[in-house]
Amino acid sequence: MQIVKLHATTSTNDELRARFRESETQHLTAIYSLSQSQGRGNRGSTWSSENGKNLTFSVLVTKNLSGLTPFKLNQIVSVAMIEWLKSDLNVQAKIKWPNDILSVQMKLAGILIENTYQKGQWIHSIVGIGLNVNQEDFENLPRAISLKNLTGKNFKLEELLLQFLFHLDYALKNRTQTIEKYLKFLFKYRQEMNFSINNQDVVATVHGVTENGELLLQKDGQITAYDLKQVQWNY
User: Fold this and answer.
1) BPL/LPL catalytic domain location, by residue (predicted)?
2) What CATH topology corresponds to 2-185?
């Protein structure tokens, strides 16, 4: 494991990708930045973070990919984060499909994984994560929360990153057991929730996920799979 600290960058995902192209970069090399101007989130959104207060980082994954799918890697990363938060920080959290980490139903972290293929073969992935750590006020983000909000404590960013990398390494090496835990940590699993499906408001029960990463929702006795573009949470 190697950790690289940057004072500022446009995107840690882009920075790590550039370093991988230019030189040999080890599995689980991580780059974190105190300031990130173009951090990306899901659905093309941006990740906004107060400078120096939060952990915005990217991790290179080059090993343990054989036999996986992109969604299974997403599951492994998500479960690794949930278990790290619980075991090391005593913070309870859930996975809001497809890639948000919630605590007390508020967004604590977001995950964005970008995969690289060569001649049809999965070569490596860059796991980008934004974790709210020491920021206390989220003026324009009413559903955001931080570790400081939850625990009342200040944290050293690099120490948190190192802790998470150990959990991620373990999860990748024990991927079958890790993936099996996903539904246990899935937000509102087996519960009714309000959704917007193809721009229509509905009430449906979260039934699980498919192998390809679609969300399974049960409505009027029928279970249907939805992809990211079709469904939004309303809560």
Assistant:
1) 1-176
2) BirA Bifunctional Protein; domain 2 (3.30.930)
